[in-house]
Amino acid sequence: MSSPGTPETLDTADGPGGPADFEADRTTRPVWPQRLVWGGFGGLVVLGSVLLGPGSPREPGPGFWPLAAGALILVAAFAIRPPVGDEPSEEVFSHNPRRLVTALVSMAVFTALFAVAGLVLPVFALQLLWLRVLAGMRWWTALLLSAAVTAFLTAGLVYGLNIPLPPDPIIALLKGTS
Amino acid sequence: MNHLDSVLHGFQVALQPGNLVFVALGVLIGTFIGVLPGLGPTATIALLLPLTYVLDPAPAIILLAGIYYGSVYGGTITSVLLRIPGEASSVVTTFDGYPMAQKGRAGPALGIAAVGSFVGGITATVFLVVLAPLLAGVALNFGPPEYTLVALTGVLLVAWMGNVSVGRALVAAGLGLFLATVGLDSVSGEPRFTLGSTDLLAGLSFIPIAMGLFGLGEVLYSIDKSPTGTKIKHKIGRIWPSRADFRQSGGALARGTLLGSVLGLLPGGGSVVSSMTAYVVEKRRAKDPSRFGKGAIEGVAGPEAASNAGSTTAFVPLLTLGIPPNVVLALLYGALLIQGITPGPSLMVNQPDVFWGVIASMFVGNVLLLVFNTALIGAWVQVLRVPITILSTVALVVMLIGVYTVQNRVSDIVVMLVFGLLGYALRKFGYEVGPLVLAFILGGILEVSLRQSLLISGGDFSIFVTRPVSLGILAVVAVVVLVAFGRRWALSRRGIAPAQEERAPEDAERS
Question: Are A72 and A130 found together in one domain?
Fold first, then answer.
């Protein structure tokens, strides 16, 4: 805690997300693919709305409002321009695609496992993978933190809030209902 | 219940021990999140939405509101110490807060920011107490045409006043409006864009979309960054500003509070627009504008007061009209819907505990913020040492399980993953997801009120300009748009881009 008159001195430099970091991320992409994608999407929504039946202003049909949304996307697509001034710039899609793919695949596997194996094992495995591989923690620290978070979540959700979860063999073992 | 009784009733609710804990927890979590330049208030509120499902309405909204205004201050700490705004409204604080830190005056910069937030927050809460019932009274006369106009204005102004170009913002808003139409048509009962899936007949749920776009999108964004913690090189020193500091910044505090209180009421307003405007006003009024960008304390005090005032009065349109004026409050709107409460003019009468309890909790929360942010500054600095990837990992698991617990559906996790990837991609391509989420929330209101308006008028669009209240709304919108266009025109004649004018003076001089 810092009270008045107590200097708080730490050491060095700018952190992640600092100005240099942002500069390195910037990239410039041609605008026409985005116009094409959004324009095409807007066109599909318009087409879908027409098929649904837009009706008339006197009697709006189910496609009336989606038609407006699709038209907005279609028109706005052609107003897309490259960022200027202080507008958020476009960024490189990923500095390290392996990290991104690891993250996405691990979440997909988690979702599949969660449905069949419940809470404990999938949460523990996902935490461990992320803390060790993506956060770069040491094995022991990652193991301990993963175990702590899993225990906290299990206690809170199962025993504290009584939330119904998919069948979990470990929780069943703990409750003696297996 | 008369007005004073209502306010006292609100304090009875807010001062219940359980609710006091939620206020304190809200401002602590908010400040914590604001300090970390990773997860913002929107992501945090999105992350905690499922939690509100198991709480009563009043504590749930008190907690989320505390996170909102707590985060507005928390972002200041990194703005001053690292020149990294913890969230959007703190960008302006970097202009003079960081130079103050470079001159060894980080303490007074943080101190005046805390005082400014307190003054702005408390004054704006008084505004809220006075204005909300008045506006709720007016809103009782609103019919479908008025709601159509207010909701449409909200979507368009948020798209227009955002950080990205209008084209990109409108594409995002259009996508939000479209997603809101997925499911059964409320009038004809016909399925729309469900692709044959029975899961989609009930429409897309707000929580997985919000958690995906904001929470998961942010987590994916952060793991693409360096996993290291942050180190600070400036001394903080004495926190409480000197008498001279107070004398110098007194006017800025008052002006910032007033500006923020007014701008927060507008759709698209809130803390970001308020803080930017307050900075420009202070710079223009200064006898020596060259001090700005070099550590002028008014450049911290005014925007901080405006930012907190704006974030507080932004609750007025949400609580009285049922129209969220910005993205964070759109999430709060979603939280109210989860609780089975529809925000709007009748909220004050039907849910006095929520309406007045939340308002009273803001008084308590602002006092707690002042205490926490002057006494605990050292602890907040330590928080910066936690690598964002560790926090993201814990947040990820909370989100994955949290989104499931709302309706006990694994498919909600899948929807969240899809929208998480979409949120990440949109950000990498220079889009904002704010207009998308706001349009998704307002899309339902817009469609129903537009169709009702057209049915009432027999398909005649002049209904939107012939009713006095709707005409009044259009007049207000026209004035706002004209003022903004006039400002752009004036700046372009002077050869200055609007965004450039709001940057630190030395930057503007350089360019």
Answer: no
- pLDDT 10s digits, B228-261: 555 556 666 777 888 999 999 999 999 999 999 9
ipTM of the complex: 0.84
* Same domain (yes/no): A171, A122: yes
Considering only CB atoms, which chain B residues are within 8 Å of A63?
Answer: 192
Q: How many domains does chain A have?
A: 2
| Number of alpha helices (DSSP H) and beta strands (DSSP E) in chain B | 25, 2
Contact assignment for B429 to A86 by CB distance below 8 Å: no
Give whole-number Cα distances, B158 to A142, B151, B162, B177, B325, in Å: 42, 11, 6, 14, 8
The verdict on residue A65 lying in a domain is: yes
Does residue A45 form part of some domain?
yes
Question: From CA B91, how far away is CA B75, in angstroms rounded?
Answer: 9
Q: What is the pLDDT of residues B494-509, one digit of tens each?
A: 554 444 444 444 443 3
B417 close contact with A: CB closer than 8 A: yes
Does A150 lie in the same domain as A113?
yes
For residues B358 and B346, give the distance between their C-alpha atoms in angstroms, rounded to a whole number: 16
Which residue, A77, A111, A136, sits at the end of a domain? A77
Asked if A104 and A148 sit in the same domain, the reply is yes
**A57 in a domain, yes or no?**
yes
Q: Is the pLDDT at B340 greater than 50, yes or no?
A: yes
Decide if A22 is inside a domain. no
Q: How many residues does chain B have?
A: 511
Of B54, B69, B3, B30, the C-alpha closest to B358 is B69
**Boundaries of domain holding A49:** 28-77
Contacts of A137 in chain B (CB under 8 A): 390
Tell me phi and psi for residue B496, to 5 degrees: -120, 130
* Angle B48-B51-B52 from CA coordinates, rounded to 5°: 100
